[in-house]
Each structure stands twice: as structure tokens, then as C-alpha cells.
Amino acid sequence: MRFGYWTPLFGGWLRNVDDEQMPVTFDYVKQLAQRAEQIGFDLTLVPELNLNDIKGTAAPSLEAWALAAAIAATTDKLEIMAAMRPGYHLPAVTAKQAATIDDISGGRFTFNVVSAWWAEEARQYGGIFSEHDDRYRRTAEFVAIMKGLWAETPYSFSGEYYAIENAHLEPKPRVQPRIYAGGESEAGKASITEYADAYVTHGGTVEELRTKIAEMRQRRVDAGLPPFEAFGMAAYAIVRDTEEEAQAELARITDVQHGAAYESYQDFISKSQLERVPSLEDYSVSNRGLRPGFVGTPEQVAARVREFEDAGVDTLLLQFSPQLEEMERFGSQVIPLLRDGTGPLA
Hints:
alpha/beta; eight-stranded parallel β-barrel; two-stranded antiparallel sheet; disordered C terminus
């Protein structure tokens, strides 16, 4: 199992807790990244939203790709997975940015391609936000152009959404960055099967992930393509000395309030095609992170991680609050049980 964490652009992940003691600054982001490398984390996902969907649209948030480059320059080992929405970027320019960050990082840069869901953000920032299936068709062209520019010089492309002619991109990445993508609609899964290298998903139960991974594996077989290189899942973790303490923390963070971020819940469920619509309690934490059930003692959480590993998940993208303190707890108490042979689960 590879352990990743979400870089906090928004000051936290909890919609019902106003102050999570997570400053919206690069100094905090750098501190997390450098400490993560020391305590056993393999990668970080840098999410991309221009508005804050956790604390409300008027709250601060940082820009993903500037952060990704900065993290690359101040770390040595972390894989840096930056999220990118095609409606806010040009494919050739993005390919060049990626090649540059690849050089800064020494080959540690990868992508999480997201076809977008937030109409309000598009209104405020001028992003392209068309109907659902159209967004996936655009994404497929976007990825094709990036991969083409990373592999060929000169490169030309003419499609429904984009056209470039005899484009030069140098220097090229050392190795083509891995493309992660996720989706639950038929259009999303069909498109991702064709263009992505790895599949990522919101949090779910063990059986939900087992079924989803089996489906995506079979889709690749049916398409005559090699297997996905990785299967990742978002999750939120609460680790405490006793199960009672962990459950008390869970109750605290899911004390539902219709606060400033409630509007994004309505936008999310209406603009997405989801296999399972999250309850408002689930939405208390970003990306359905509570569904995997990583709540309990170190031994309980480690055992739960093993269940997902058996189901085919090989990459966890974890959220914590407050991030630094809880990441330290997970790194010192859970990861050793799963990796070092020192715990009862090894």
C-alpha cells in the first residue's frame, strides 16, 4: 500500500468546523510535505479549486499548480500529484508546465485529471463548464494533446475542442507523467478507460471498491489495453488510543450545520452523476472520506486498510484534521503496523 495525503489548500477538510488550525499558507504546506517524507508518506495530491468549497466561497484558497511547483522544489522523495481541470487550462501550455515541474522534481510529477463539477466556480472564474458528458469528451482530447507533445516533436492535433499545428515542446519529461482520473458515470468510466493510466475514486466501503475495481479492470481488458497502473481511494482517518475516543471525534466533526459551505453540497449532487449520493453527514468531510471507516485505534485502522488492500486498492489519499498532528499520529502508529513487520497485523 502507498500512503498519500491531500495538500490542504483550503484551511481544512471539515465543513462543520470553522477553525481547524491549518493555515492557508505555503509555509504550512511546505512543513507538511517535508514532514510527510520523513514519516512514511509516498505522495501528495494537490487538489485544484479556485474557490473554497469547504469553508465557503468567500474563504481563502491557494492555487494548485503554483503549490505543486513549490512542493517539488522543497522536497526530495514525494510524488506530487496535481489535480487539473481542462476547462481552466490550455492543453499545450499545461503540457509544458508539467514538463517543467517534472524537471524541478526530478521526475516525481503526476496528474489527477478532473472533468469539473462546480458551476459557481466556473461563473466566477470564467471556466468552461458544459454538460456532463461533453466535459469528459473535452478531457479526452486534452490528455491526448499532452501525451502527444510529451512524445513527439513537432506535434499536431485537430479535434472537436482543440487544434494545434507543428507544436514544439522541449525539454520533454524524463518519463511521461502518470495520468490519474476518476468518474462514476458511464461516460466518465468509458472515457477514463481509454486515456488514464490509473484510477482514483471517492471514499467507499470495501465491497464498493472491490466491485468498482473489478469493473474497471474488465473495461481495460475489453478495450484491449494494459491494466491500470494503480487504484487509489480518498479517505479521512481518525486514529485514537481507544475506540471510544475515535467515535467521539467522529461525532464532533459530523455535527451537521447548514453553514456557508452547504451551497456547494447542493451544487455537487446536482451537477454530478454519482453512483451513491452522499448524505449531508457524509458531506461533512470532503470526498466521501468517512465511508471507508478508517476510525478507531491504530490496530483497527490498520486492519481496515488491509481489507481495502485485499480488495485491490494500492494507493490511499488521506485527509486529516488538524493535518500535521493527525498525520504524525498515522505515520507513527498505523504505517509501521502495515510496513515494518513490527505490529500484530504484519
